[in-house]
Amino acid sequence: MKIDLRENRLSGQIPDEIGDCSSLKSLDLSFNQIRGDIPFSISKLKQLENLILRNNQLIGPIPSTLSQIPNLKIIDLAQNNISGEIPRLIYWNEVLQYLGLRGNNLVGSLSPDMCQLTGLWYFDVRNNSLTGSIPENIGNCTGFQVLDLSYNQLTGEIPYNIGFLQVATL
């Protein structure tokens, strides 16, 4: 089952009852005016593969319970007002391929665990308030095709093994 309501003028919050759609595989509510937190009930969607909520007015943290969705391949939360840190548990989702978090209010540092995602090819955290250094093991993220860390507050040295990346866009 797929719910595609992108590019409308929808407002309000994502209802908690969305978690009752047990056969939902794709949820696309992008380019609307949806506000509020991402409901924790989304973690009940065990068949969900695509969660696309970009370009809305969502606030609050990224629910760490998203890591409980075993088939989740795409998480696109770009261009919202999401705050807090990127939950480390997300980095242990073995099937995650696309993590789009650009243009939010995320803080904290990048976890070395990001390289645990062997299937991840798209990692975009551009235009947030991330601090700290680029993880030293970044060169081990061999699946990345797109890695965008720009417009943050990262410090320190560029890791020597960054040249091992086979990315098309860095």
TrEMBL record:
Protein's UniProt keywords contain Kinase: yes
Sample GO molecular function, one term: protein serine/threonine kinase activity
InterPro entries assigned to the protein according to its UniProt record, in alphabetical order: Leu-rich_rpt, LRR_dom_sf, PGIP
Localization: Cell envelope
Xref: Gene3D superfamilies: Ribonuclease Inhibitor
One Pfam family from the record: LRR_1
Domain of life per record: Eukaryota
Presence of the UniProt keyword Lipoprotein in the record: no
PROSITE patterns reported for this sequence: LRR (PS51450)
Broad class of the protein's primary localization: other
Keywords tagged on the record: Kinase, Serine/threonine-protein kinase, Transferase
UniProt name for this protein: Putative non-specific serine/threonine protein kinase
